Amino acid sequence: MxxxxxxxxxxxxxxxxxxxxxxxxxxxxLAAEVADRTRLEVGRLRLVDRLRxxxxxxxxxxxxxxxxARGRLLDAGSDWLLLQEEGAGELLVxxxxxxxxxxVGKPAEVPGSEGEVERRLDLRWALKALVRSxxxxxxxxxxxxxxxxxxxxxxxxxxxxxxxxxxxARRAAAVRQVRLVPLTAVGAIRSWx
Length: 193
Known about the structure:
The protein has helices spanning about 1-45, 45-50, 115-120, 125-135, and strands spanning about 60-65, 65-75, 80-85, 90-95, 100, 135-140, 145-155, 160-165, 175-180, 185-190. The protein is an alpha+beta fold. The protein has a ten-stranded antiparallel beta sheet with strand order 5-1-2-3-4-10-6-7-8-9. The relative contact order is 0.13.
């Protein structure tokens, strides 16, 4: 009888061991699938997907041609972001000029979750708002040079800047020249009243 009893115990142990191995394999397979799906979702995230959940956050950025800037993230579009600078006005930054950004939290949006209207709110749209406002601006180009004046118009791939001294209204007598600037050269724009 003893021998038969030992055999039964062995079978019970074997089944328990196989069950534990199967459970561990299923858990590992599930963990690998979750990791793969997470990497896939993160790989689909765009800059705007990361920025929108952080609206209102204090961020610091480094912009080509401008250098460092800090402030509160006010808004973000498909290829731009708007910052309320500490102790200054608003700074519109072309995403193509953004070199780095810190202070943004973890992603909270589904990649590409914006609608058709939001997709159209690109840098050109943001620049057109400055044209309508007739605000004076300082345009920082990608090479670090600056232009001051007023945005006159926004084309398909460029902006017209009426250059005049800072603080002066756009009057024919104050305008030195109108300069065309390709959108690819726009780094950031500070606006004032």
